[in-house]
Model the fold of this input.
Amino acid sequence: MKSALAPGIRLITSFSRDSWYRSFILFLTFLFYTAYHLSRKPISIVKSELHRNCSTVVRPADLNVTNNATWCDWAPFDQDNYQTLFGVLDNCFLVAYAIGMFFSGIFGERLPLRYYLSFGMLSSGLFTALFGLGFYWKIHSLGYYAFIQVMNGLVQTTGWPAVVACVGNWFGKGKRGFIMGVWNSHTSVGNILGSLIAGVFVSSAWGMSFIVPGIIIACTGILCFFFLVEKPEDVNCIPPQHHVIQTVICGILCLTQGVMEFSLCLLFAKLVSYTFLYWLPLYISNVAHFEAKEAGDMSTLFDVGGIVGGIMAGLVSDYTGGRATTCCVMLLAAAPMLFLYNYIGQRSLGTTIGMLLVCGGLVNGPYALITTAVSADLGTHESLRGNSRALSTVTAIIDGTGSIGAALGPLLAGLISPTGWNNVFYMLISADVLACVFLSRLVYKEAQGWCGRAPRVRG
Done:
């Protein structure tokens, strides 16, 4: 009598070879972009250490200082305009990222994705570590840190178009919103891990808050070089069903199929998301009077909410077929929640936790949906017909436009915050409303489809 297979082996053999490869690629690309975001996060955690309230810090007995108010700060961020200087650092990265993104999609179409991603992660690891080495080399030049941020912003643009193109090569349209909603949690996971890792070192030696993430992303670059499979055909797997026509991005597509609307919506959605990414720990530290590590740890709740929000946005949009409507509803709900968080969010620990989770879900849900499922829908639309690498360019157009907002948000926060945090939140609420305005035409078309007046068109 033939013995029955063990349950675990039966489970393993129930998946086809193609399924195993697809799962492996999804896991690898998740890991890669987690590392990209992990390496971006330390600057927001370290800000509250570079400029502190020195009156609350115990001064070593053998330390002779000339300025009691700023003795514990790191020059040049020991000045009264430290928030503006932090804004400069943020924008050096984000402006370079926004500009580089428009070119990154072109390179992503023409270069092997394995080499392109490996180069990007190794380079990002180098520049992230160089920022941290400024602590050990005792560098106090704003120009040094600004240059590192510019270079890091440029090389980080290798990540998003390439990983989305790779996932697009392996996965078709079935349940795309849900699959990419789960997969896109790498953004929040990276932010959380980056915050926690940076928080371990921030109070003792903030340089390690950059060096350790730099080493991590460099190691994932090596992993990419040895294991990434760009296309199913490379390992004799069956490619997913895509539309097969010509590889051109035409102005008609931008005007009629939603690229322009979603790009402009993402500009304002990303403005809000990245303002929280770069300024939330400092806001919590200033308003709720947490220490740098505690504020960094608390800020991770915003990203935990973002994971749930991204998955829910994908599920709802898959079920309804309304990508634009899903984004619009979440953005409209986010506006009053941001108002409430600013006014009552710090009253108690429970309130803070609850509001951060809800705000994170509503703010990051639309951002996640647009940069993943929407980009993939448009990048493989029948109007493009052909080489799926067009997805890399469409993704770069959408995310590049969104990155302009990512650069504007932290800059405006740096300029506005000296007048009061209330004004920063009014700016964020206005951005959410504007994001909805740009989706109004697509929401109207989707509503017509549901009412039976027109064929339902996703995206």
Observations:
- The chain has one domain: 17-53+75-230+249-451.
- Residues 328 and 440 are 8 Å apart (CA to CA).
